[in-house]
Amino acid sequence: MNVLVSGVGGDIGFGIARILRKWGIFSRLYGIDIHSDHPGSSILDECDVAPKASDAGYISWLSAYIAKNKIEIFIPSSEAEINVLAEAELSTLEGARVLRNNRFTVQHSLDKHVCLSYLASKGIAVPDNGIVEESTPLRYPVVVKPRSGQGSKGVAVIKSAGELRMCQGEWVWQNYLTPENEEYTCAVYASPVTSMRTLIIKRKLIGGLTGSGVIVRNPEIEEYVGAIANVMQLNGAINIQLRLTEDGPLLFEINPRLSSTLVFRDKIGFTDLRWWVFDKLGLDKPTYTPPSAGTRFYRGAHEYIFNA
Hints:
Elements: E1 2-6, H1 11-23, E2 28-33, E3 46-49, H2 58-68, E4 71-75, H3 79-87, E5 92-93, E6 96-98, H4 103-110, H5 112-121, E7 129-131, E8 142-146, E9 156-158, H6 161-165, E10 171-175, E11 183-191, E12 194-206, E13 209-216, H7 219-231, E14 236-245, E15 248-255, H8 262-268, H9 272-281, E16 296-298
Parallel strand pairs: 1-2, 1-4, 2-3, 4-6
Antiparallel strand pairs: 5-6, 7-10, 8-9, 8-10, 11-12, 11-14, 12-13, 13-16, 14-15
Helix pairs in contact: 3-4, 4-5
């Protein structure tokens, strides 16, 4: 069985490839990215350069690539690709199963204004928020970010109305959530054949990524992320980022994909990537034992050398 992973030049795509290589159930591992300046070939059997998801010929190029290499499972890792595939409602491509969330989940997660408005309409607590050019915060500081964006790219803390007026284009604002040391990244997996599974990680950031974390048990957060997953019609894996405030847990981001902590999770037994593959293939999954509260992990570094 051949598998294709996209975005292998990024931390998520490369992490997916690492798990698949260690898993060892696939015949050949293929990887694509929009450039070749990455160490993907150190663990993948073949790496190629693909067009951007925004290019008009992206899907036709991808279809041809999948057919040529007899791919049976395609795992897109970037939000841009996931969005394009969801918009086109492609769950298979040239016979390959596509590992992505459904269109509803993707659309109601990637647009940050739509996301918070929709959750609020379902009775789920969210931070005060709005579109920069249409509404004004009642208090500062606020976080300003692109309405549709990836991770921490373009995020800024705004401390006054004057600073806010400098923001242009499709930007949204959200109340700045405190305390800063109560930040959590929550992985959630669910499918028609798998009951909902959640993993709550209290994290510390290093350069925009989770640098270290500890597994916690918190019924209030578990109930909160479970409610979000339910109204988001989850059938797959998502990542909910939140802070535990004096008013309870409040999210500030939903990523409708596998997140950058997927290798950590896999190593401690929350193997959401593997569960997703099992469910797509209709295979029985091993028994799941939740990781113990108090389990800690730390992000290290790897070196990849390619001789000239």
